[in-house]
Amino acid sequence: xxxxxxxxxxxxxxxxxxxxxxxxxxxxxxxxxxxxxxxxxxxxxxxxxxxxxxxxxxxxxxxxxxxxxxxxxxxxxxxxxxxxxxxxxxxxxxxxxxxxxxxxxxxxxxxxxxxxxxxxxxxxxxxxxxxxxxxxxxxxxxxxxxxxxxxxxxxxxxxxxxxxxxxxxxxxxxxxxxxxxxxxxxxxxxxxxxxxxxxxxxxxxxxxxxxxxxxxxxxxxxxxxxxxxxxxxxxxxxxxxxxxxxxxxxxxxxxxxxxxxxxxxxxxxxxxxxxxxxxxxxxxxxxxxx
Length: 290
Fold this sequence. Notes:
By secondary structure, the chain is mainly alpha-helical. The strands form three sheets. Strands 5-6-7 form a three-stranded mixed sheet. It is 41% helix and 8% strand.
């Protein structure tokens, strides 16, 4: 059954009302339904780049913050010590975000830009949790404009090159439409247990391809990415919400999963042949859950 708790923070008011009605129907009747994925709606001004540029941005401060405040737990999920972050790392985190937002990202080459936008998205997300800590889910940070809005994703949180940007702007108007790479979904982190892991080092032009591939392998082969329970293939709701990025249907999702699945899981996916359901856990990825 498709997850009734799809990311409704990303929907229009009209779609939000439809999703709410559909969610009630699902819960009451046990029926499944799809929802339109948020579109990769290009913001043309961010297409600007300089392919010949050798300019780099130093992300070592973000790497140090991650090393001090995040670690992979025994269950394979990276968790963040948000409480300690609030006590000892928030000033450094804000300094890093300020340095990124004062940079001229449009003057970078594409690989530098990709690292820039991913790191900015993740750093701002961590800062949001720290600012509102303690909190049990990012969904509870209801700062997006609009009466029916849920979560923080549509709030303009940073300004880059004179443009006010929300997290949704960075993900859906810059990262997804420019790079058109499904691995983007394994890079941006929504501070939730169901989300792909927050990388334990900053993205750079030199490591971005390696990290995207490594994150894809890690997530697909973790039970929250894909698993077979009693002969039923259950996948992350990410593959439903953004099915357009994963081939446009179940066949595309299955092909994508097999690309990164290790032998045992790949065989189970091949043998199963179709997707039976999906789920997602919005609980905060806190080292000390609230």
